[in-house]
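Pinned message: reference record for NUDIX hydrolase
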Amino acid sequence: MFQVVTDEVEFPDGQVASRDYLRHVGSVAVVPLAGDGPEAEVVLVRQYRHPVGGQLWELPAGLVDGVGESLPEVAARELAEETDLVAGRLDRLLDLHLSPGCSDERIRIFLARDLRPASATHRREFEEATMTVARFRLTDAVKMIFEGEITNAAAVAGLLAADRARSAG
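Predicted structure (tokens):
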């Protein structure tokens, strides 16, 4: 998933300093959006995250770790694996550097529309086995951001971008 590397960085004044950071394989996330207007719903997953010591509401997401998979293919796979849904339409929403002070990880967030059940349910293992999958009105999910109930950076950015995209038509 990542490796810790150290680079020697030369600054404009000629000084050199070591910088440690995580070199990451990259990731994708998906905002699954069902419906339009004020009744539009998003599908979120609640997953245990050990570094923060608790459960977080997040977008379906995963690593770009499959050989030869394009980013849309990774997004479609993660959507199916985590929510048992497939999208009729998958559009690029935005790209983010999640923590550029310590990692080169870049995440692409997709907007998934025209959702339907996957033809087969997926067997969830490890942390995925305990995930909760739930639907929320998009307007309620945005409120959850500002109430501190959704703190995952990709989820915050993706939900706000989806809300803007929905409002723009």
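Pinned by admin. Summary line: The chain has a mean pLDDT of 90.
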